[in-house]
Design a protein that fits this description.
This protein is an alpha/beta fold. The chain contains twelve helices and 18 strands.
């Protein structure tokens, strides 16, 4: 994958005191640098950026985030939630997947990296110490790809050893990239899962065209297994089209032919869903995409999604294909109702406790 290189870097004046800032700038020599005042930077959860002319993917903003880093995953509003937490130290992504909700959720196009990294680590440590009996599964991939900017930020080299020292903390680095070089040689102690968003080869080519092809993602996953990491896979979003069955079945086979099944922590499934206004954004930015022309209905949280029978068919077949390859790996659904869970897995689910326990055991080791 081609590395991200911005045309300009904007440094918030307070960020010059952080060692993260100097480290990033050393890795990006020869780039135009401008110092900006805090008052010139917008900073809310949905709007982190600078004036409009500089709000594009060619701008990298280095700033101190003043809010709380650790939050519950937005999936906590679903019928069955895996009790996941997220920390966001990077906003936005340069991989430009056509369906990406960030292009409608975030108000600006610039990439943002937070330089007050010590504040993030202290917040996580305080929170976990308050609940020492609880296992916290924490991911960094909600507002950006977890590793696509890692060659520049080096965040993984601080996060992975940090989580290794937390008795009840487990990190998930979720990515579409093959930027794993910083993970080599780290003392992770089994407390980091490196996971990949995967799709059919056709979708990877047509809708994720700036991301590495599936083959390269799976090669990166195998390498991480060789370094002792557990790996995970997220089929999200699954896209329904004429030949989806044969092509997604092939992806499932490719995964289990490429990695050691015993080292797979989990696999999640989630069908395409998005806020209604994203359709116009996709049509404007990616006129060749087929995403806006599917048949969708309003669903959970007001998002558009496929009819429930279509989703149930997709999940049921995906689960059966995965189970033919491995009977042990935890498989779960993202943002689905009790009804869909029951019809796909053939049993009733009273609450999310069984799923949480299953995923907690997955990071502790298969039992």
């Amino acid at each position: 994958m081609d590395p991200y290189v911005p045309e300009r870097i904007l440094v918030q004046e307070e960020s010059w005191q952080d060692d993260i800032t100097s480290g990033i700038l050393e890795r990006l020599p020869g780039i135009e640098i401008r110092t900006v005042k805090s008052s010139d930077i917008r900073c809310t959860e949905q709007s982190v950026g600078i004036e409009a002319p500089l709000q594009d993917r060619n701008t990298l903003i280095l700033m101190r985030y003043p809010g709380n880093f650790l939050k519950r995953c937005q999936g906590s509003g679903a019928d069955i939630c895996c009790n996941y937490y997220i920390v966001s130290c990077v906003w936005n992504c340069h991989l430009e997947c056509t369906y990406c909700v960030l292009q409608s959720y975030l108000s600006g196009g610039a990439l943002v990296a937070c330089t007050n990294f010590d504040d993030l680590l202290k917040e996580v440590e305080r929170t976990l110490k308050r609940s020492p009996q609880k296992i916290f599964r924490i991911g960094t991939g909600e507002l950006s790809d977890s590793l696509a900017l890692d060659p520049i930020t080096g965040f993984s080299r601080r996060l992975v050893p940090f989580f290794a020292g937390l008795p009840n903390g487990y990190l998930e680095l979720k990515t579409k990239s093959d930027c794993i070089a910083n993970l080599e040689g780290l003392d992770h102690r089994g407390h980091t899962v490196v996971s990949w968003s995967v799709n059919s080869k056709r979708v990877c080519f047509s809708e994720e065209y700036k991301s590495p092809p599936l083959k390269e993602r799976l090669e990166a996953a195998l390498q991480c297994q060789k370094w002792g990491y557990k790996v995970g896979f997220h089929f999200d979003p699954i896209i329904h089209y004429a030949d989806w069955e044969s092509e997604y079945r092939e992806t499932v086979r490719d995964i289990f032919r490429s990695v050691d099944p015993a080292g797979v922590a989990w696999i999640s499934l989630g069908a395409l869903r998005f806020p209604p206004h994203l359709i116009d954004v996709v049509k404007r930015r990616f006129p060749g995409s087929k995403i806006p022309y599917g048949e969708f209905v309003p669903g959970h949280h007001g998002k558009l999604r496929y009819f429930r029978p279509i989703r149930e068919e997709i999940y049921g077949k995906m689960v059966s294909w995965i189970r033919k390859e491995d009977l042990q790996v935890p498989v779960y659904l993202c943002m689905e109702s009790f009804t869909v869970w029951e019809r796909c897995f053939g049993r009733q689910f009273c609450d999310a406790s069984v799923l949480c326990e299953q995923l907690d055991k997955a990071v502790l080791g298969r039992q």
